[in-house]
Amino acid sequence: MCGINGYIKFSHENDEQLKADMNKMNTLIFHRGPDEDGIFAESNKSHSIAMAMRRLSIIDLSSGKQPIYSDDKSIVIVFNGEIYNYRVLKSKLMNEGVTFSTTSDTEVILKLYEKYGPSSFKDLDGMFGFSIYDKNINRVFIARDFFGEKPLYYYKSEDQFIWASELKSIVSITDNKPQISKEGLNLYFRLTYIPAPHTIYQGIKKLEANHYIEFDIKDQSHSIKKINQDHIDDKINISFDDARKEVKNLVYDSVQSRSISDVPIGTFLSGGVDSSVVSLCLSQGVENKIDTFSIGFKNEGYDESDKSRLVAKLINSNHHEFIIDESDLKHNIHEIVLNFDEPFADSSALPTFLVSKKTSSNVKVALTGDGGDEVFGGYNKHYMGKINRTYTSYVPKIAHNVFLKMSDSILRTSSDNRGKRYKLKRLLNSVDYNGEFYWDIISLANTSNEVSEIINPHWHLPNIFSVYQKQFGLEKPKTLSDFREIDRHISLEGDLLVKVDRTSMLNSLECRAPFLNKKIWDYTHTLPDSFLIKGWDKKHILKEAFKDQFPDHFLDKPKSGFGVPVGDWLRTILKDELESFIDRKKLNKQHIFKTDDIIKLVKNHLSNTKDNTFKVWSFYCFQKWYYNTYVTNE
């Protein structure tokens, strides 16, 4: 696991300057790879190119140093990630006469490319971001994995092309400070995060998952291409019992493939279905006790440590439990929020950081349950298709509008309690008579109308999802398969995977997600939606596959998620800083928000008049980024 950086200058630069720039970019991502670094630099009359990486040594500790070169030195690679099927791919190549000088997965990628070109990228099962410079054709290939577990940003100006694992590296060497992107701003204030290909910066893009960049150095041009995966079969005719057995086998195999490591490995164990299944599978696949790690909260409304203890006892793990309160987080909030390099308001990043920090003191690699909800249909929002169809069939639109107005007072909450009233209010706001309800329900911060109430009209883009809707052909998603595709491209890539990558790598910990396996993803797409959600039973087939391994009804227990009471913290430990962000002079100078409206929104929350947790937290995180990162880069 590493971080990578690179650039192409359309002019001659001396080697010392190239290395100085790479060292500058590398230093900013030291946390991603504290074990060692490596730099490649080369220049001629027409151009200069440099690639660098920081390494966290997990596989091939002795000979896996990067960059790695082809035998004739004409091709070079830097790589961030893990390739779980590299041994199978290596064996195939060796049978075809290919020789290797290391035991690393990085060299396998290089040799695959050397033999088959960029079409070989589809054969990689893993999480990755890498760049390959092929001197033979004077081109650079920069690729990102199927789900987007590993990040890749890029930027092109008149005189250079830059790519990196983190935004901060690119911003550090751009000629001019990038401006704020309207698209990025609007996506953030709808979703609380910014999915690919956008970032908060105009001109800096995020490479979409399952894509690669082909850069022609001679022409100074680039194209973005999709990694063409093998065809997914249509829905298959199979019994539920046979499908259940296959799901069980696929999950066991995936956990085994993702447990390959030359360093100690453990699991995040929250006590929910996904982390419990992963921990169980790992414990049954190794001889010794595994280490499991969980976070508990002194606030009982957020604490589920009893569930993780039960699973730890069941699988006989060495269980590490950390009970925290706001005092454990208040000193880290600044570091956590700013490490994302752009506005990011998923509050579960805070406990994820802490469990990563505690875990990294014991192991270098942790398996997680991430992706289980997206793969198997585990979110309440996945009910929305059925609910919207039923509701709009019986309730006229005019009556619904009356209910919405009434709900403002009847369902109003004043505390950070995401209970039934909050969920019912959110459900009513997401009902859509035009079939676009799913795009509303994934908007965790504001609906389009709510954004227009707080953002200056100069900045507001009302149809911000239109590009994604056309791209995926999902303007009006209807089925669970539709919802899951949106989740994969939007919320998984832009939110969950960003959260886990940045918080874990900030602690130099590698996280692996066995459910994010293309074989499992493809297989679940061949199954009827009713196998995944049966009635109101989410992740039905996954729970049925493993229910005999757990106490009766354990997998049916509700899971509240990895939440923290940030709404309350905004009124207490964060209050002074939040109030500084609504200073009228600052807001008028900033010229992004409608001053009176945003002040009212925040003050209603602070006074307990109305709970505006998601809206105010997203505003707080934006302002924290703006004044501590954006303004300081001027």
Automatic annotation (TrEMBL):
Active-site positions on this chain: C2
Site label Important for beta-aspartyl-AMP intermediate formation, positions: D370
Residues noted as binding ATP in the record, renumbered to the chain: I295
Binding positions (L-glutamine): D105
EC class (word): ligase
Keywords: Amino-acid biosynthesis, Asparagine biosynthesis, ATP-binding, Glutamine amidotransferase, Nucleotide-binding
Record-level GO cellular component terms: cytosol
One annotated GO molecular function: asparagine synthase (glutamine-hydrolyzing) activity
Protein name: asparagine synthase (glutamine-hydrolyzing)
Organism ancestry: Bacteria, Pseudomonadati, Bacteroidota, Flavobacteriia, Flavobacteriales
